[in-house]
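Sequence in, structure out. Go.
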Amino acid sequence: MSAFRHFVNRIKIRLRGKYQIVGWRMTPDEVVAFFKQQEKTVLTFFGFSGFQYDEEPEVLEIARSVLSGYSPETTLVNIGVTSDGAGIIYPVAKEMGFRTTGIVSTRVMNHPHRISLAVDIICIVVDTVWGGIIPGTNTLSPTSQAMIACSDILVAIGGGKISRDELIAAKEKGKTFQYFPAPMDRAWAIARAKSKGMPPPESFDGEVHEWLENDTNP
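Output:
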């Protein structure tokens, strides 16, 4: 991205919502330090990234049920900044009185319109990918490293490749998580694959579901 484009997109992001940008090019350690300063429990929702859910009302009811077990005074609700996928939970969290946060890759700078208007605090991590394992390596991307390190309570509702990679890393670190099945929208997923010249998905349950079904060491 050119310096001029970056500058323009910063302005677009600032004008689009009332959220606080903690940093535009943060490291995982800087994100962790910021969250520690908040002195609150961080409840992170994992789900699909860039995909819609098949039954959004059911997903939102699951989220409401989970959130009802925590106090807005002591809990931050964290997701991945964007309004799609698990980001549909942001407005519900806000309605219930929670302060909302988001950790996202610098790639969001090319997509200002995708940032949820219901997120209060944003940490933008220097990254070449959106998250998950960096292609061609066994290394978790900086964005996903920050996401896992900051999360105290992990809740997955459905979930694709990035969420799967993050949850595998969380499990390796001894963290536990709740999982609720929730398939992606079939028609939307097929149309999206077609627009990218790719074959339609063989399964609509998502990579998190497939991993857990095949995991021999739960």
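Check: Residues 209 and 215 are 10 Å apart (CA to CA). The helical segments are 3-16, 28-38, 56-67, 90-95, 142-150, 161-172, 186-195, 207-214.
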